[in-house]
Amino acid sequence: MEAAVSAAKQAFASWSQTSILSRQQIMFKFQNIIRSNMRRLAESITSEQGKTLADAEGDVLRGLQVVEHCCGITSLQLGETLPGIAKEMDTISMKVPLGVCAGITPFNFPAMIPLWMFPLAIVCGNTFVLKPSERDPGATMLLVEMLRDCGCPEGVVNVIHGQHNSVNFICDHPDVKAISFVGSDTAGKHIYERGSKNGKRVQSNMGAKNHGVVMPDANKEHALNQLVGAAFGAAGQRCMALSTAIFVGESKHWIDDLVEKAKSLNVNAGHEPGADLGPVISPAAKNRVVDLIQSGVDEGAEIRLDGRNIRVAGYEKGNFVGPTILTKVKPNMKCYKEEIFGPVLVVLTTDTLDEAIDIINANPYGNGTAVFTSNGATARKFTHNVDVGQIGVNVPIPVPLPMFSFTGSRGSFLGDANFYGKSGISFYTQVKTVTQLWRETDASFSKGSTTAMPVMQ
User: Which one of 71, 152, 171, 239 is the catalytic residue?
Assistant: First the structure.
């Protein structure tokens, strides 16, 4: 691990001085090689993590979009200038790299989350140490090999492996200037506190409890289809999974149809044709999901669809949990308060939109939410009054594209600058301001000239 940080520190001396055009060219090549190898990356993800191939390709694509955005670094990293701020005096501000940065990534998006981090960091002129999840590091290793094939110099991106000791090493090492983290609450709070105490910048994306509000005037088929996909896709192992549904007023009569749609999903190994969702990541994860389902039943919820005892032919020892729907859930129940991170949808009902908004705002998390409605006034009221960082209107998983930023809030995020977009550039750079005085009376002139075309490199 020490060798990785040492290599990154050594590489920073030259990489930070490499022209922005040269760094941009590597991003052009990197996005092309990722696009050409999407299937290979997806197959690696499916074999290690278990999600379906279609979902794994989406994992790669959303990361690739960040790399494509990095290709615009010549605009993204522009500074500011104000000439003539005083007589013969100009002020210039520049966005300059920090040094060695580090990333700690989760198991659920083995390609997308690393691609949120190291491409943006290095195109800004930083070097990077990446610790992927020990459960599925294969995609990260493939991506770093591809980056090397693009001509990225040795030491610019380095990978370490491990668990707690590796995390603490990153938090404590004096040469690491900034840490990016996506994962659980417990780890995220630990990394933010430990890293911040050691003087590092930290951005920490953590847990979530995302609510989908269904209004009676919504397009019924669209709303229910989107709910099913967002709740059960990737076996519910998404920080933006729509794991909680609130049916407002008469829309509660649609719950029976929701159950029927969920029943039709095909649970199978991720590489099998036609699979809609695969297994959860481990036996421990399955046991936790099953226990949280049972806690809901014990506290008075009604289990309308029970996926705990599903058996998948040919994969009888797999970590499968089928789509599960709990209704009559109350906000004081454990199954509501905790992030289940499995294919479980908890369902609440309210009489009014105001009640639904109150439930969402009382929840400590603020990652994402969505409202399904055909009424513009309802949508506007919801988006203005709900205290959540990312809001969808008839969009179940409102993860912004990389020209914006991933803006989870409240209990879902610790830090001052969010991932990718303008916030990501701010996180991986610091502003250096130069005020300079050049007196006109001191001007001198050279007599040499050339007729060659000027070229910048």
Answer: 239
